[in-house]
Amino acid sequence: MTEQKATNIHWHHGAVERQHRQQLLGQKGVTLWFTGLSGSGKSTVAVALEQALFDKKHLSYRLDGDNIRMGINKNLGFSAEDRAENIRRIGEIAKLYCDAGVITLSSFVSPYREDRDIVRKLHEDAGIPFVEIFMKTSLEEAEKRDPKGLYKKARAGEIKNFTGIDDPYEEPLNPEIVLDTEQLTLEQEVELLTKYLEDQGNLSA
Amino acid sequence: MTEQKATNIHWHHGAVERQHRQQLLGQKGVTLWFTGLSGSGKSTVAVALEQALFDKKHLSYRLDGDNIRMGINKNLGFSAEDRAENIRRIGEIAKLYCDAGVITLSSFVSPYREDRDIVRKLHEDAGIPFVEIFMKTSLEEAEKRDPKGLYKKARAGEIKNFTGIDDPYEEPLNPEIVLDTEQLTLEQEVELLTKYLEDQGNLSA
User: Fold this and answer.
1) Which of A3, A40, A101, A163 fits a 20 to 30 Å CA distance from A17?
2) CA-based nearest residue in chain A for residue B95
3) pLDDT by 10s per residue, chain B, length 205
4) In contact, A97 and A29? CB cutoff 8 Å
5) What ipTM is given for this predicted complex?
6) CA nearest A59 in B: which residue?
């Protein structure tokens, strides 16, 4: 766990609390954490779900491995230490968004169980639901899709420590949802996720 | 500027854009950046403004020096380097919230002009309004208030590098708003800020 360095700090409880923001939005903050190989369709399903939620007047926000790395995590690379810090920070941001009442869609490879479990605990400790969604896709299939040409580069040795090639992907042991991306259509995936949110009561305050 | 370490990254443009989220919320994302000495009333006015905005059905979220430091920035201390990284990360988070359509209230001492200007540029480059609010308070008055007893500890040498005592506070040169906290009541401050947001068109989409 990351050490707390600063002392002389106090938690400010504002007059407006999470529950009030949720009432304003007519929904509950929740993090949907998509994890899976590059090419497993994490961002694609997050974009489609975002649209489906918007059509129902719900506010969601996508945190994406690529766009986060251009901003807050631009000073992090792909070493084991930096990967862990990358996921930790994203987890903290996702939690903050949920506290604001926002449905947060995080799509990162996030290959290590330990890192994902830290993010889960951050949420659980704050009483915020965390939904781990495993984008089940064989390496063979992900490599065949290779939408960004990254597997090709990794096989050619142009990218090092690439998940699935020369860095491991640790499958979730107890994910809330498994999406078998080789069996389901995008529409089915979105329907399944929307129904899950409805059933869990996240689409009302 | 912070170096961009990761390569092979791409910016994902989702189907749902900032403008759509703003329409859903009936407001525009904006960062109100409160800066000033410890004891100048940054958090107090942010809490009161949050309540006033909520009463008008607007979604805002407070980023606070104290609560941020317990989460995403828990691995940062108070060295010059860590202070700069603290503010940079907060600026990136504020920008992300604005992109989600949220009115973001940031209350940090943020004593250095250079750090605040980096945050301003982050926002301007993304086409997001940044409102720097200088909580004008003399050191004498701030030290007299000393709500957390921190000046007393700093004077006793128990806290080092404390802004105003043994670390400088660089006043904003061109802040959008100056609140003279020794002249204005809290109610007047909130009224002034609310009117500013209305006049700038931030309280409609």
Assistant:
1) A3
2) A71
3) 466 666 555 545 558 999 999 999 999 999 999 999 999 999 999 999 999 999 999 999 999 866 798 889 999 988 889 989 999 999 999 999 999 999 999 999 999 999 999 999 999 999 999 999 999 999 999 999 999 999 999 999 999 999 999 999 999 999 999 999 999 999 999 999 999 999 999 999 9
4) yes
5) 0.90
6) B21
Residues of chain A found within 8 Å of residue B5, distances taken between Cβ atoms: 74-77, 82
Give the best residue of A2, A3, A9 to mutate against chain B (max B CB count within 10 A).
A9
Q: What is the dihedral of CA A51, B124, B29, B80, to 10 degrees?
A: 110
